[in-house]
Amino acid sequence: MKKPLVWAHRGASGYAPENTLEAFQKAIDMEADGIELDVQMTKDGVLVILHDETVNRVSNAKGWVKNYTYEEIRKLNVNKSFPEYGKVTIPTLEEVYLLMKDTELVINVELKNGIVFYENLEERVMELTKKLGLQSRVIYSSFNHYSVMKLKQMDPSVKTGFLYEDGYLDMPEYASRYGVEALHPAYYNLQYPNFMMDCKTRGIKVRAWTVNDINEMKLICVNELDAMITNYPDIGRKVVDEYERK
Question: Whose C-alpha in 37, 97, 105, 211 is 20 to 30 A from the C-alpha of 137?
Answer without folding.
Answer: 211
